[in-house]
Amino acid sequence: MTNPSSSISDSARRAAHSARSRLSQGGSGGSASAGSGSRGSGSNSNSSGSNDAAMPAELSGGRTCHSCPDWRYVMGIRRLGGVPYLYSWHHLFLIAWNRGGTGAMPTYSAFPSHPDGDAGVLGPLKGASTSDSSKPVEAGHETDPADSGDMGYLQSAHAADFARSGEYAPDNRYVILRDMNRDLGTELMAQSHAMDAMRIRYVPTGPNSNSFAMSLAERVGLPRRKPEGDAPGSGIKI
């Protein structure tokens, strides 16, 4: 049987290592600036281009829509793991889709700065059954090398386009937050940096990447909304 503690801790580590890998392949983290993604062919077919293979059909029937508002803001959820019949472990990320323009899809997420830390056995089990409103938020955190359970602080990650973000998976789900003509890219980066500067201690069950994604949406005036799926930490406001 899968150990719930290992599932939670290992999922956080895999997400962090995945984020670090994508950063080295063209994304950015921390203080990096936003960039633009490449434009698709206008088709939703996987055969029309390498980026289209990662284009979630759930968001629209086409790559771009020039009669639509310029920007569509979307919350995505990706399954990381779980324990059968008990719970599933999900990771949230925010997409800013230039649906009415170039088709670029800048993507915002977060991960622990020290992904090799081990949350231990009792911490995740207790945290998973505890309400987000009861979980403490520790700011100004400095990683303690002597603490094997210290996963560091919450660190933002930004990829210029969803297709290169490492967040795509076939069973992802998405929910539209808002359509508008306003580009929130500057605000999204500024608020990501602001949360980075707080150096909030990363905890697998929250505050975590789910806390970051939901708080980022709220900070730029978008609704706190997520797709269906267990996402511990999503109720924590940063």
UniProtKB/TrEMBL annotation:
<feature type="region of interest" description="Disordered">
    <location>
        <begin position="124"/>
        <end position="151"/>
    </location>
</feature>
<feature type="compositionally biased region" description="Low complexity">
    <location>
        <begin position="1"/>
        <end position="10"/>
    </location>
</feature>
<feature type="compositionally biased region" description="Low complexity">
    <location>
        <begin position="41"/>
        <end position="51"/>
    </location>
</feature>
<feature type="compositionally biased region" description="Gly residues">
    <location>
        <begin position="26"/>
        <end position="40"/>
    </location>
</feature>
<protein>
    <submittedName>
        <fullName>Uncharacterized protein</fullName>
    </submittedName>
</protein>
<feature type="region of interest" description="Disordered">
    <location>
        <begin position="1"/>
        <end position="62"/>
    </location>
</feature>
